[in-house]
Structures are given as C-alpha cells and as structure tokens.
Design a protein that fits this description.
alpha+beta, seven-stranded mixed β-sheet, 43 helices
Length: 1169
C-alpha cells in the first residue's frame, strides 16, 4: 500500500486483509454507537477482527483541526472500554479532509468487578502507538514496518511494528555511522591563530551541527523552515554557485572537500535568520536580515555571511522572510568570540576562517555517498570495516518527525524531540573520556527510558502534593496523573491548592544532561493543570494576581507601565486564537519551577532546545512575517539551565550575607533583572537586562568582599561567572547565586553520572576533583572506593532539598549492598526518610549496560520507619510491591546492606563465627589490558591468549566463564615473561596468587566454585581467588597489607594460625553448598555481582578435623567424578554435603526447609545423628 496518499477505506481494507494481518482476519462493516459523549469523534465503524491476535479493527472519524492527540486517544480508550475490547487497530480520519490520517495500535487494561464477576467499563494502563500517514509524509518508515515485513505473525511482532524504540534505534545507528565518518573529516577554526587545534573540538562541533539541524527539522514540521533549503537540486540551480556535492577528482575519484552548503545555507539559517528579528523594533519593514556586505562590524553574528557563494542572495533572504521566525532565547547564538580570536563555529567572511572551516558538501547529500568506510576502530567492532553512509540531509528525509514529545501512553511511530536527548547523550558518551572504552560499542543505551522518568516524576509529584495539599488525597492524586477519562472529585478549594502547590514547587535536576527529567516533570505538571482546570480559567487568574497583587514580588519590582505590558502579555499567552491552552501552562511553569545544571555546556544547550520545541508546538502559526509568523520570541532560559560543576560549592556561606541590607538589596535587584530577561522579547531589551545582570553580579561580589564575607578568590569566581557565555562551564554551583533559590528545592531528581573510583583516578581532572571532594566538609559518605553518584545523592539530599523536600535518583544497584556505599546507606536510614525504593534488579534499564539499578526516594525528614519496595517488569512498568519495616530492610547491622525481598534475611545470624576472610586471603585476578601510562592502547587481552601452549604462551589461564561447580571446564594459555606481560599489564597482581593452591569462584550470578590443587591457573579479574593465609606466610606486599588494614579484625599471624585448622576442600564444599548461596544473598542483597567483599564475609563454622573429614571425602569424590566425566551426576554427594553443612551451622529442620523447600532430606533423616 502507498502510505503517502490520502486515506481510502477500500484500499486500506485490502492492505489489512491481503498484506498485514493474519489470514484469519475477518472483515466487517458495522457502525458503532458511542455510549459516551465525545468531543471530537463523530462516528466509528468496526472494520473486522483477528482471532489469533485477539484484535479488533476500527475506523474513527473526528473533527479535531489541531490533531488533538491526547483527547482523541482518551476517546478511543473510552470506546474500547465501552465495547469491552482491550486492544485494537484504529484508523483516525479527519471528517473533512482525509489527506492525512493516523493508524494506531491501542491497548487498555479492562477492570474486573470481582463481586459480580462482570467486566466494568473502567480501564487503566492505556497505550496508543500511531503512524501519521498520508500526503507529504515520509514514506520510508511505514513502508518498511507495515508493508515490507508482510503479515503480522505474533503478538510480539505486532508490538515491534508499532515500536518507537525500534525506529529510534535504527535512526540512531544511521546517524552514528554518519557521525563516526564525519568527525574524521570536519575541521573548525577554533583559535584562529593556532592551526594545530582545528580538530580539537570536532566531536562537540559535530554534535552541535547535528542537534541544531535536527531542531530545524522539527521546526520544518511546523512549516517554519523553507523546504527549498534542503532540496539539493534547488540549492544547485537557484541558490549557490557551482554547487555539486558529488564532484570528484583524480584517478581514484576522491570527493572534493568543497565547503559551501554548511556555511552558506545552514550557518546563515542558524545564526542570522533564526537568531535575527525580521523587522526593526516598532517597524513593519522587513529590513533586519541582510548580508554583511563587507561592513566593519565583523563581530555582529546576526548579519549573514558568504554572499559571494550565492548565485541569487536575495532569493535566499526572501525565502527566509516568507517562513522563518525569529526565535530569540539565545537558542542559535553563534559561539564565536571574534574579539579574542576564537572561532568555535567559524561563522566568518575572513579568508583564514573559511580555509580552516572544513565541513564538506558531500556530508549532506546523497544515498551511500560514503562507501566502504572503515569505522571498526571507532566502534571497536570488526564488523564495521565496510560501512556505507548517507548524507545527513538524506538520512533525515527518510524518517517521519513529530514536533510533540511522546508520552508513555501516547507514542507516535516517528522521531520526537526526545530524540535530541538520545542523540546527544549517546554521541557525547562516544567521545567522553570517562566512558569511551565501552561507549563506542553502544547503539543507544545512556538515555533514561521514558517509563522510568515518568514513574520517578509521578512519585515525586504525588509526594509533593501529599505534603503541601493533603496526605488524605493520595488516591485522587494518583488518579489525577493517569491518562484516563475518569472524573476526579476535588472541591474548588482543593483544585486551587493543587494549582498553587505546583506553581510554588521548585524542581532541580543536578545532572540534567539533555533534559529528560525536567521535560518529564513539565509534561506531568501541564497534564495535572489540564485536568483540574481544562479551560485555564483559574491558572490565568493566578497569573494575573501575581502581576497586580501589591504584595507579590512581581508587583513590587515593576513600574506601572511594565505591569500594564505584563498584563497584556498574559492576555496574549492565554489567547487560544494565538496559542493552544498548554502554552500558558508550560510558559509559567518553566519560568517559576524548573531548573537544571550540567557540567557540559552543550548539554545545557540541548535542554534549552527541547524546552523551546515544547513551546513552539503550542503556538498557532500564521503567514505574517511582521507578526513573526505567529511565533512569540522564545523565553531566555539562561537563569533556568546553567553549565556548572554541581558538586563544587563556594567555601563561604553566602546566606549569612543576607543580613546586610546592601547585599540583600543588590541581590533583589539581580533577581528582578534575571526575571525580566526570561521574558525579554527584543534584542534591545535583552541587551539592557543582560548588562544590568553583569553589573549587579560584579557589584554584589565586590560588596561581599568589602564586608568580609568572601575572599578575593571567591570574589573573582562570583564576578567572572557569566550566565550568557554558552561556551563556559562554571567551576562551582550555588543555587542562590545562580537561580535565586535560597531555601532549597522541593524536588531534586535525576540520573547522576556513574564513574567508579578506578576511572576517576585515571583522569587528572576527575582525580583532582576526587581529592577535593574527599576533603570537603559537606560530604560525610565518600567512603573507600566511592563512585561519583554517591556525592550527587549526598549533596542532593543534604544541601539542595529544602526541609521535607524529596530527592530521587536512578543509581547503580550497588548503592544497596557495596562497601563503598555503606556510609550513604547509614546516612539515609539514620538521618532521613527512605520512603520508597524501586528494585530494578534483573530489569534492563540501559541497553547493553552491565550495571543494574535501583531508585531511592529520600525525604529530608526523619519520621518514618518503613519503606515501600516497588518492583518492575521487563517492560519497565513499576508498581508498589510491599511495605518493608526498617528491621527487615537492614539485613546486616554492620554493613547496612538493604533487603528488597520479603525474606527474613539476617547476615548477623552467625555473627559469632569467623568469616572466610579470616581463613583465606581473597582477591581477584589480573586485568590484561595495557597499562594506561606504560603502554596505553598497544595491546588488549585477546592479543595475549591462545588455545595452545608454546614457549611464550606458557601459563594455563582461566576466566570467570570457565568455571563450574567443582570443575574448570576450559583453560587456555597466557603469554608470560615478555616485556608486556606481566610488566605492562593494567593490573598484574603478584605471582604467588597463581602458584598456590586456591579456591576459584566466579564473579556473576549464582556462586560456583572450583579448586586449583597444583594446576597453577593464572586468572583474569572475573575470577575470585581464596588462598589460605598459611600459604602466603612469606609473601609481603601492598595488596595484602591493604587488605588486612581495610577488612580484617584479626592480626595476620592469628589468621595464618587459624588457616592451619581447615582443609581447602572442606571450604570448597561449604562454598558450593545451598546454604552458602543463602548466606551470600544475605550479604550482597540482590546484586548480580559477586565481589571479593561478599566472599570474604561468608561465615564459616568452627570445626574440628573429624567434622571436616566427611565433607572432604565427598568433595574428593565429586572432583574425581568430574575429572573422569564432566557430565557425571554427583547430586547425591552434593545433597549429603548440604545436610552436613546445615548441621555445622546449627540449622533446625524448619530452617532447612526455608533454605531448600524441595530438599529430599526428611525430618527424620536430618535429625538422625
């Protein structure tokens, strides 16, 4: 079927019956009577059904002229519930114009009335996935997933056909190949006087180019960018001289690196059109967009450049002035600092800059313009040796884009603005020094999934509303956040209280990245306002009161004329002839509630882009350039999103300075100026308040120093921070100084960076920060090998939250059980309220990531002693599971490991016993990659290993995956005694680890142990080794000394003496027993990893030789059987070991049944001794 044509029911039915649905599809043509009054839907037809898919097909005609996705979705959900269907394919066709239509897959959960056993007409968990089809819509995506894949064969196949995630991943893979290819070619001038730095910022430059271009593509969906700018033929024939992106030269036909399209078309579009007013202030003449024409103001980046590249420069200007609005907001500010010779974007007419700017035309146009490109090194993947890449314009043209952000309940099968975040975070990770090793193998795995974001947002808003409105209304608050049509019973006073609570709510994402959480919380706040005040009557009244009430800050800081202008502005914002209702909701929530910080300036730029798109989508466009095509100049978000190091604060407490009248008055003026910048609509107004902000910042800093509140260094820091410098990242963060937020935030939410101690120590900048934070008195939980996210949690709870505020972050699962997070766990349960934890163990949150996750919700108060434990299914749908008292949450009083199960875990049960670490030195094997300093990148693990022994590869070698219970199933051979191995290994360890008898234990999942009784296996880091202390009595090194100092409660001589009382085979039997797995669970919680600390703390019962002997004999029997036949059944011997182990630990038979409910041992047999 041709999906780029108008809707025709007969053609669509033929497609469903002959090409798409299973052969059991039965067509019908039955009119459906609506049981509920609909606002937009006018009639519905049942077109057929498929029994094998349990699926019905409907056609709904509607009158929505603005394509009200949310409203139409709710009407379709209601119709399905009334028809008692829980899933359907629905075609949504506009009643008066069938040129464009939507084809949707819809699912709901029908609620059951248990008392009468009849299905009620209520529904929950609604989901809608839609294709936008018809004239002018890109054909590639629907054709691939609806036509070319043939008939749907299963439920999973049906979901994949309507999967946004599958589509986004495909797009990202194409874009990633283009990016990996482009960064090898492009160059930016940067320091114009230094030719050696032209490729220094290639990665950032390419990411900026991509994200700006994608943003423009979204604007093109609103018909705000001329299609001609992306038409290769039109550009060549009507705009640019000698434009041919496919031109080659020489015997090998190399493509020319001519750079015309990027500077002439795209840079002028970015910097001198979207960033430039169409008319002068107060004028109706289209005079402001023009070429520089050799004028002296070379630093005016709002003037167009490269006029000599054009065959018809005036046509270019005219096309822009018929379509392209001025967006304001600093969105497309050129980053060049021409006065200081820094050309980050290289937007310049100078010959030197033109020469240094290399972004060839062939990168933009053509199917497979790059053929047989070797990207294997960049990806770390040999399968990427021959890659074909399209021009980026052709990539974008293949896909459908929607300017509205999808929600978990309503997703269009196209690329939405969230894509900016996904593209940015993945491409950024691909060159980020902290993650580069693994990031290049990823295909889109660093962005927090929408389902996780929404759950965290919903739970945070519910907690806030309970605290500020009423604890008793939680069920109604939860219903309020649902995308159903059930009426909600609130009084007018309660609705006003909810609205005021949202308006007063301050929200911070301290590591905002590309804005997933700020955007997610904005969406839900807007949704709440839409449900309690659908006509915006009360919201408008509240905004008016803010402007005219003499007690408000807004009134006090404005003149009468400014207030009149403000009131006129409010009227326009709420005028539904100009804007959709959500526009005014978003605008004032953004202005008053939402803040973000990230250390990367480019991340802040992407966050702003997404917020700008969210406002543009709700403005009604027109054809009048004097009215800026109906687009209000966007707000300035410099005081809402800042680039800064969140973890570094000022040494001085600036709150004390507020006692001084002079400081307090200046800060109030600064706050007022920042507020006015947000809504400044003209270049002149923005310039005026920008100057005021800079002058006040310096004045306050100097005043603070003169009064003795800060020293000279801090004066310089405060004075030099420029919120308008898009290239800079502040070395410190202070919420009061940067946002004017003194008492903290109501909600602190986000996904902080995960950087372990090893990776922090590798990089000089991170290592320096680690040392600084370790000495910072604000932090009390940075313990042992702490991961960077620990610092984010502590500062989020203690310093960013206001009293009773909530902090929630999605973090690695080791927060719940690792040694380095022990002090953090203690701080949370002893000083604050852990009101909920989401256990994501076993749920793949980030694709291809090895880390598992959990989500703590911590309130800055200390009044509860229970925690809600929530669980997620594989689709990331999260629900409350049970309530956990602290007495069961903390399963180990010493390590404070958290228990997320309903099992009564207690690792203190055997606290009088010695632990395995008292008998054995526990360590992990070597890291076989090249040492960063000695031989960085010169070799990797695979270069050192062979399947057969020779003179060089002379050491038997094993990895964690080679281990089974009582058996090493495979070994290979390791290069040894060469220059590089062990001398240049990243972690060589010491030789006695491998030349002594030892237990060999795996590092992931279920514990499996074998033994080395003279084979002298050399082990890599995924093998944990346990060596009796007596066998290391003559070995002295830093590793052993450090282990004893950190982990041992006994002296080394005493541990050596104790180790002589046990046999290694006896310990092997215990470690492989069922009860040892239970003990391990009590120690590590739900962690999938087995770290040395877990093994070290397994309690071992005191036993004499006579008690050890039967276990030793059974172990020897098992080892012999496995040696003779690896598949030998040794279960009876292992069951007998289990029985003996239970007795050694003093378990009752009832406790044995808890450990192993399926045990074949009877109570009589167990008690027989």
């Amino acid at each position: 079927m041709e999906f780029n044509r108008s809707y025709n029911r007969q053609e669509f039915m033929q497609f469903l019956q002959n090409n798409f649905l299973p052969e059991d599809f039965k067509p019908t043509n039955e009119a459906v009577t609506f049981s509920t009054q609909m606002k937009y839907s006018t009639e519905a037809m049942k077109l057929g059904s498929s029994e094998s898919l349990d699926l019905v097909v409907y056609e709904i005609k509607h009158t929505s002229c603005h394509d009200a996705r949310v409203a139409l979705s709710k009407e379709a959900f209601r119709m399905l519930a009334d028809e008692m269907d829980d899933r359907a394919l629905v075609v949504f066709v506009p009643e008066d114009d069938c040129d464009n239509y939507r084809f949707s897959f819809i699912e709901i959960s029908l609620d059951i009335n248990e008392e009468t056993n009849r299905i009620s007409r209520n529904y929950s968990n609604p989901r809608r996935y839609s294709y936008l089809l018809g004239k002018g819509i890109a054909y590639y995506t629907p054709n691939k997933y609806l036509n070319m894949k043939g008939r749907v064969v299963s439920d999973e196949d049906l979901h994949d056909r309507f999967s946004v995630e599958v589509l986004t991943k495909e797009f990202y893979n194409e874009l990633s190949d283009w990016y990996a290819w482009a960064i090898q070619i492009i160059r930016f001038p940067n320091d114009i006087n230094n030719d050696t730095d032209n490729s220094k910022y290639n990665n950032e430059g390419a990411i900026r180019l991509i994200t700006r271009l994608i943003f423009v593509w979204f604007l093109k969906q609103r018909h705000l960018i001329p299609e001609e700018f992306f038409n290769e033929t039109f550009v060549a024939q009507s705009l640019l001289k000698d434009f041919n992106p496919h031109k080659t030269e020489g015997f090998f036909q190399h493509k020319l690196k001519n750079t015309k399209y990027y500077p002439a078309i795209l840079q002028n579009l970015f910097f001198a059109m979207l960033n430039s007013p169409i008319t002068a202030e107060g004028s109706n003449e289209l005079s402001e967009r023009h070429f520089r024409n050799g004028r002296g103001d070379f630093d005016n980046n709002k003037l167009m450049r490269y006029e000599d590249y054009f065959s018809n420069p005036q046509l270019f200007v005219d096309l822009a002035n018929k379509t392209v609005p001025f967006l304001n907001g600093g969105l497309f500010d050129c980053l060049d600092d021409k006065d200081n010779g820094m050309y980050y974007d290289g937007f310049s007419d100078t010959e030197k800059s033109r020469k240094d700017l290399v972004v060839p035309d062939f990168l933009f146009f053509g199917e497979e313009v790059g053929k047989n490109i070797d990207l294997s090194e960049w990806y770390g993947n040999k399968n990427k040796k021959k890659v074909s890449a399209r021009g980026i314009i052709d990539i974008l043209k293949r896909y459908n884009f929607t300017v509205e952000e999808n929600t978990p309940f309503d997703k269009e099968v196209s690329l939405d603005p969230e894509l900016l975040g996904k593209v940015f975070e993945n491409l950024l990770a691909s060159f980020n020094p902290e993650t580069q090793t693994t990031a290049r193998k990823q295909t889109g795995s660093f962005y927090t999934p929408r389902e996780i974001v929404q759950y965290m947002v919903d739970e945070s808003l519910i907690a806030h509303l309970k605290r500020t409105v009423s604890e008793d209304l939680e069920p109604q608050f939860r219903q309020l956040l649902q995308y159903t049509d059930e009426p909600i019973d609130f009084t007018d006073e309660q609705r006003k209280a909810i609205m005021q609570s949202l308006y007063d709510c301050k929200i911070l994402d301290p590591a905002c990245g590309s804005g997933a959480f700020p955007m997610g919380i904005l969406q839900q706040m807007v949704h709440i306002l839409g449900r309690i005040d659908p006509d915006n009557v009360q919201w408008k009244e509240m905004m008016m009161n803010q402007a005219i009430n003499e007690t408000t800050e807004a009134f006090k800081s404005t003149t009468k004329e400014e207030r009149q202008e403000l009131i006129a502005d409010i009227e326009r914002n709420f005028d539904e002839g100009v804007n959709r209702p959500d526009y005014a909701r978003k605008l004032y929530l953004i202005e008053n509630c939402i803040y973000g910080v990230d250390i990367q300036p480019i991340a802040i730029q992407i966050s702003k882009l997404r917020f700008f798109i969210s406002l543009v989508v709700d403005q009604n466009t027109n054809m009048d350039p004097i009215d800026n095509f109906g687009i209000r100049p966007l707000p300035n978000l410099e005081a809402k999103f800042v680039a800064a190091n969140t973890l570094i604060g000022l040494n001085s407490d600036l709150s004390l300075a507020d006692q001084a009248d002079s400081v307090r008055n200046l800060k109030q003026q600064l706050k007022t100026a920042k507020h006015k910048i947000f809504s400044a609509k003209t270049v002149r107004t923005k310039r005026k308040y920008k100057q005021q902000v800079n002058e006040l910042r310096i004045a306050i800093a100097n005043e603070l120093e003169s009064l003795g509140f800060i020293n000279g260094t801090e004066t310089y820091q405060l004075a030099s921070w420029d919120m308008f410098d898009q290239n800079a990242s502040s070395p410190f963060f202070d919420p009061d100084w940067m946002f004017g937020v003194k008492v903290g935030f109501d909600i602190v939410i986000g996904n902080p960076p995960y950087i372990d101690a090893k990776d922090q120590l590798k990089k000089e900048e991170l290592n320096r920060q680690r040392l600084y934070l370790s000495k910072d008195k604000r932090f009390a939980t940075l313990y042992q090998k702490w991961d960077l996210y620990i610092a984010f949690i502590e500062i989020g709870i203690k310093y960013f939250c206001n009293q009773n505020g909530l902090c929630t972050m999605i973090v690695p699962y080791p927060l719940s059980n690792q040694l380095y997070s022990q002090k953090m766990r203690g701080m949370i349960v002893n000083e604050f309220d852990l009101i909920e934890v989401v256990d994501l163990n076993g749920v793949k949150v980030f694709e291809n990531a090895t880390v598992t996750n959990c989500i703590p919700f911590v309130r800055k108060s200390h009044i509860v002693n229970t925690t809600i434990i929530s669980k997620a299914d594989k689709s990331k749908r999260i629900e409350h599971a049970f309530c956990q008292p602290f007495s069961n949450l903390i399963q180990d009083k010493k390590t404070l490991v958290w228990n997320f199960t309903q099992e009564n875990r207690n690792s203190n049960k055997h606290e009088g016993m010695h632990v395995l670490g008292d008998y054995c030195y526990i360590s992990k094997g070597m890291v076989l990659n090249a040492d960063e300093k000695k031989a960085k990148g010169e070799f990797k693990k695979a270069d050192l290993i062979t399947d057969y022994a020779d003179d060089i590869h002379c050491k038997p070698y094993i990895e964690g995956k080679d281990l089974e219970r009582y058996r090493v199933k495979r070994h290979r051979y390791l290069e040894w005694n060469t220059k590089r191995c062990p001398g240049e290994l990243s972690r060589p360890t010491f030789p006695e680890l491998y030349t002594s008898e030892k237990l060999l234990i795996n590092a992931l999942g279920e514990m499996k142990a074998s033994i080395d009784l003279g084979e002298n296996y050399y082990c890599e880091q995924q093998v944990r080794m346990a060596l009796l202390w007596k066998d290391l009595s003559i070995v002295n090194n830093k590793s052993i000394e450090s282990s004893i100092k950190k982990f041992s409660t006994m002296k080394r001589t005493n541990m050596e003496k104790l180790s002589r009382t046990v046999n290694l085979r006896f310990l092997l039997g215990i470690v492989n027993s069922k009860y040892a797995s239970v003990l391990l669970s009590s120690i590590r919680g739900g962690d999938y990893h087995i770290v040395p600390e877990h093994i070290r703390n397994i309690p071992i019962p005191d036993s004499i030789a006579e008690q050890q002997a039967p276990i030793i004999l059974l172990v020897e029997s098992i080892l012999a059987s496995k040696c003779e036949n690896p598949s030998a059944d040794t279960s009876s011997d292992e069951q007998e070991i289990d029985r003996l182990v239970y007795h050694l630990y003093g378990l009752t038979y009832e406790e044995v049944k808890v450990v192993d409910p399926e045990t074949p041992i009877t109570e009589e047999e167990y008690n027989k001794e």
